[in-house]
Amino acid sequence: MARYRGPKNRLARREGIDLGLKTAGSHAHASLLRRLKITPGQHGQKRGRKPSDYGIQLREKQKVRRIYGVLEKQFRKYFDTASRDKGNTGEALMVALERRLDNVIYRLNLAPTRTSARQFISHGHVTVDGKKVNIPSFLVEKDMVISYKPKFTGNPLIKKMLEDKSPNIAAWLEKKGPAGKVSRLPTRADIGEDINEQLIIEFYSR
């Protein structure tokens, strides 16, 4: 399945929440929030059919998949791995997604979106413990240090991100300049998005 390359806000409207896929000014962001309750398409506003249990489960799965930018086949692999975990399947799934390197760059406020973080990683601008890692799905471990290569910190977008005096950094991460450290592995409580992972479990258990 190819990665979606259409309008980012269309996906947000389809799921009814801001997926954090697009950087926008305050006016554009407010406009998106006003339209989130309207599904895409000419007759989106008129759709009033009550969704089935399957439809609700599918939408939750799609929402989480789109938040983290994961393709269907890869997302299923995450679920299958989580289902083999001795603990809670839903929590194991969410923690694995949260540990993705592209998400870590985003959570460190070193990229405006997970999409841009994915691009920075794929283009070889990111190091983990001093070694280049160009795989966005790389899973970080405790005490790993994530950083940009020195030359890349001159990028105008990165310079602007680093000038943010009050960045919103995930509680399980530490940040100093263009580098961050995994102080501990994330827990389900660290994930602020409105997600019901039980619906995803029910979707794959049908």
UniProtKB/TrEMBL annotation:
It comes from the Bacteria. GO terms for cellular component: small ribosomal subunit. InterPro entries: Ribosomal_uS4 (IPR022801), Ribosomal_uS4_bac-type (IPR005709), Ribosomal_uS4_CS (IPR018079), Ribosomal_uS4_N (IPR001912), S4_RNA-bd (IPR002942), S4_RNA-bd_sf (IPR036986). Residues 3-98 form the Small ribosomal subunit protein uS4 N-terminal domain. The keyword Manganese does not apply. One of its GO terms (molecular function) is structural constituent of ribosome. Keywords: Ribonucleoprotein, Ribosomal protein, RNA-binding, rRNA-binding. GO terms for biological process: ribosomal small subunit biogenesis; translation. Residues 99-158 form the RNA-binding S4 domain. The keyword Cell cycle does not apply. One of the primary rRNA binding proteins, it binds directly to 16S rRNA where it nucleates assembly of the body of the 30S subunit. With S5 and S12 plays an important role in translational accuracy. Belongs to the universal ribosomal protein uS4 family. Part of the 30S ribosomal subunit. Contacts protein S5. The interaction surface between S4 and S5 is involved in control of translational fidelity. This is Small ribosomal subunit protein uS4.
